[in-house]
């Protein structure tokens, strides 16, 4: 605990005081352009990875970077997504998984959750990922299997994200873009899903969003 208290003192002296005006402006409101959905894992720091400042990212963190599909019991994720899209008007939503993810590993090895009933229930948000892994990745094992599952899980959660009413409406209007990322803990590299290549590529090599918003339709005729 002392480490945290010492860190607060350092933050106030070395960061806040030299940027007093900046932090003062933050008190007037927020207008982040990006909703960043990632894992609770202590090794993941969205602002550090993206080199962004307070006020730049609206962040959701949970075990496995899961996005419950619409129709699931309403929780903090759905409410936060709705607020980010409908009120803050974020332009981009990123779902960011990471290597060595314990939640995804638990999805692959449910026997580890026998004494963790709440975690087991939460992991059901990756049921679609689990089915994909059983169907298409039986030839893999160990770290290779986990890495593939992490990537597939990002795509599953993007699918869930599209079912959220606020997101579906914003996509239809072309107001928001979706992106799938994977952070490689051991190297600091970030990979983004390329919809044309259907692979995760270095983020600097991907030009478009993971799921391109559909063009807004012309006014429909009565039938």
Percent in strands: 15-25%
Which architecture per CATH?
3-Layer(aba) Sandwich
Global mean pLDDT:
92
Q: Which structural class matches the secondary elements?
A: alpha/beta
* Number of DSSP strand runs: 6
Low-confidence residue ranges = 215-223
- Classified by CATH, the class is Alpha Beta
User: Taking Cα atoms only, what radius of gyration do you get, to the nearest Å?
Assistant: 19 Å
Biggest sheet, open or closed, and with what strands and sense?
Answer: 6 strands, mixed
CA(first)-CA(last) distance: 67 Å
Give the name of the CATH superfamily. Answer: Carbonic anhydrase
How do the strands line up in the largest sheet? Answer: 2-1-3-4-5-6
In one word, what is the shape?
A: globular
Share of helical residues = 40-55%
Elements, N to C (H/E): HHEHEHEHHHHHEEE
Q: What name does the CATH topology carry?
A: Beta-carbonic Anhydrase, Chain A
- The total of helices stands at 9
What is the count of distinct domains?
Answer: 1
Please tell me about this protein's structure.
A six-stranded mixed β-sheet has the order 2-1-3-4-5-6, with helices on one face. The protein has helices at residues 2-16, 20-26, 46-50, 76-86, 102-108, 117-123, 127-136, 142-163, 165-172; strands spanning 34-39, 57-62, 92-98, 177-183, 190-194, 199-202. By secondary structure, it is an alpha/beta fold. β4 (177-183) and β5 (190-194) form a beta hairpin. The protein has one domain (32-205): Beta-carbonic Anhydrase, Chain A (3-Layer(aba) Sandwich). It starts with a helix and ends in a 21-residue tail after the last strand.
């Amino acid at each position: 605990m002392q480490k945290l208290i010492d860190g607060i003192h350092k933050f106030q002296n070395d960061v806040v005081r030299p940027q007093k005006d900046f932090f003062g402006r933050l008190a007037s409101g927020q207008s982040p352009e990006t909703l960043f959905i990632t894992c609770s894992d202590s090794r993941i720091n969205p602002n550090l990875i993206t080199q962004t400042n307070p006020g730049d990212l609206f962040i959701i963190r949970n075990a496995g970077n899961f996005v419950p599909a619409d129709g699931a019991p309403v929780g903090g994720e759905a409410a936060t997504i709705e607020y980010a899209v409908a009120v803050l008007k974020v332009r981009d939503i990123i779902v960011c998984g990471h290597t060595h993810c314990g939640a995804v590993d638990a999805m692959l090895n449910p026997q580890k959750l026998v004494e963790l009933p709440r975690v087991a229930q939460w992991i059901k948000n990756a049921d679609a990922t689990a089915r994909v892994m059983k169907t298409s990745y039986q030839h893999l094992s160990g770290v290779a299997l986990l890495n593939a599952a992490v990537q597939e899980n990002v795509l599953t959660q993007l699918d869930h994200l599209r079912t959220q009413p606020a997101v579906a409406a914003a996509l239809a209007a072309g107001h928001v873009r979706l992106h799938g990322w994977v952070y490689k803990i051991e190297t600091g590299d970030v990979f983004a899903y390329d919809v044309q290549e259907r692979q995760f590529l270095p983020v600097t090599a991907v030009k478009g969003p993971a799921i391109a918003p559909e063009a807004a339709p012309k006014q429909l005729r009565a039938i």
